[in-house]
Amino acid sequence: MVFTLFLSACGTIKEHTHKAETAPAPVMPVPTRAQLAWHDMELYAFIHFGLNTFNDLEWGYGDTPASTFNPPHLHVEQWVTTLKAAGMKGVILTAKHHDGFCLWPTKTTDYSVKNSPWKNGRGDLVRELSDTCRKHGLKFGLYLSPWDRHHAEYGREGYRTVFLEQIRELTSSYGTLFEYWFDGANGGTGWYGGTNESRQIDPQTYYRYHLGGELLRKNNPDIMIFGGTEPTIRWVGNERGVAGETNWNGYDYAREKHYTQAQWGMSDADQWLPAECDVSIRPGWFYHQREDHQVKSAAELVNLYYKSVGRGATLLLNCPIDLEGRIPREDSLSLMAFYRDISHRFTDNLIAGKAKVRISASAVRSKKFSAEKLTDGDNETFWATPDSVTAATVEVTFEQPVVINNIMLREYLPLGQRISRFSIDFERPDGSIVKDHITDSLTTIGHKRLLRFRRIEVKTFRLHIEESRGPVCLSELGAYRVDEPLIAPEVRIDANDSLLLFARDPDSELFYAIDRGVPVRYEHPVLLPDSARMVTAYARRIPGGKESKQTVKELGVSHRFMQIKEDLGAEVHRLFDGSGFSAFRLPDGVRRLTLCIRDRQGQPAAMAVNRLVYTPDQQRDARGHIQRYCVLSEGKILAEGEFQNIKNNPIPVEIPFSKAVRTDTIVFEVLKTVDDEPFCSIGDLELMRAD
């Protein structure tokens, strides 16, 4: 009897030891091998180039001749070497945008490079770029717009065959592709072979994405697919390059109530559909000379990196090609400075391989999964807790106090995403505990979580995993002292013409200058004089004195002088308060605003004006954006047109007038709203002076 009990106990111990030495069971869903490789890319480039570049458009109508595509000094080698030096792991090219113009000599249409003067019609840009990417060790991907505003058969059976044939050409002739993009813009007005009409389709069935998916995977079994009905990754729900602070890799489109849900993912979805953050280095996706001064700075790109890669997503950064056929100098300089920054800031992990650092965990599955695995530099090893433990603490203690302001975390994703809530507290050298130093929402971790906070001197810090979907599996932990880039302040002019400055760095002081005046330290809102035409502002770090780039804001007609003729209530002043977040919603059916310029006595005061700046509603899930518009003065049309892609990219847009006019009244008419909403919501309006 005793011997039997002994054998039974030995068996129990052996079973327990075996479980402890094996990894935890996966928590579904889990990524494929190809998805894991895609996660590791983290940063890659988008290239928008085509007829739109030479016609100064974002969404071509499909009616501009192929002969307008003629870059005089196209230099694909410059694109690729620049992007590689900027840390990009791959490149995705817009082989065909909505205008239908193809950058390869397709057999499916004459609307392509073969009928352009570039290289006498013998060029193939897809071939040049794919070959050059492989030469320099970058992965290559393609974007093919399903919507074709040029093709006469779009919306009919004929184009369905054309579309699949274009996929076949691109996926069988240009080598291995790492990603393929099906844009979500579908149907609407277009040239369509000269009919100039609107055509609507059901994208879920018309394009036969299931057949397209088969073609993609035939020659590229590990390809990532964006869009359509066969996705392996998801759009993040905005074109600002920002993922949610909570970002689950699971997603279920059948349960999606609004596309912006994609920022956060779903914790209980069955499919692994990680988020890709797409954003342009300029306001637009294609090159426009007027945006040369609006290239995102290195500091702004670093900020986007933290809000995308640093929240478990990837960053697809668009770099438009200019009229010469090159990445512009301004863009290149910003890209290089950005990569220098992010490549240096995470080189010295203050807790990795340091003899004078002690790391321990409150629960460990076994020695194979010890807390030391968090700092061994190997993403294939990880700290894990026993099956019954879903909350645990890691403690890091330094022999001597250190100053840190960045922490990096990484889950072991082959076994699924688990952690849903965590916290970090810091113990100062005097023994005091600081619990709320990090202001981010500390929920998910995923592929990578980067946390930035004000510098703090610590002797110990503790990572508390508070909630997890199963045993904790964490593969990496890093602490860093980073010299953060100093970002220029945000400048806003409110409804009373008061200057408001907002610091983007907590350890800085702000300065401003009106017109060409001497810079003054900003301490509180400043009432601007009526004569002011421009405000310049910058930040200065404390201590050290390092200064940011300047924010320059041109001032329009004084907000105090602007009135709306229509009786729309007291809140109409929000149209002129300088903030797109305090949007004003026009009553249903109201599509006309009469902007009146008045002096201090309320009398008409004519001024020379030459453009109107429209800022869409910036609130989350905003609706009622303006799509088509008309601007008039004294019955004469000054401007009319369409805001292309305003739904996905709701940035401030300038409406230039055909000529400057001296007037006290401007009429702004809304001809169509996005998705034909019955109402219109406007974030802000600013009438710009010509003198």
UniProtKB/TrEMBL annotation:
Entry GO terms, CC: lysosome
Whether Signal counts among this entry's keywords is yes
Enzyme class, first EC level, given as a word: hydrolase
Record keywords, A-Z: Glycosidase, Hydrolase, Signal
InterPro entries assigned: Galactose-bd-like_sf (IPR008979), GH (IPR017853), Glyco_hydro_29 (IPR000933), Glyco_hydro_29_N (IPR057739)
Enumerate the Gene3D superfamilies for this protein. Galactose-binding domain-like, Glycosidases
GO function term, MF aspect, one: alpha-L-fucosidase activity
User: Which GO BP terms apply?
Assistant: fucose metabolic process; glycoside catabolic process
Any idea where the Glycoside hydrolase family 29 N-terminal domain is? 46-334
A matching Pfam family: Alpha_L_fucos
- Family per record: Belongs to the glycosyl hydrolase 29 family.
Q: What name does this protein carry?
A: alpha-L-fucosidase
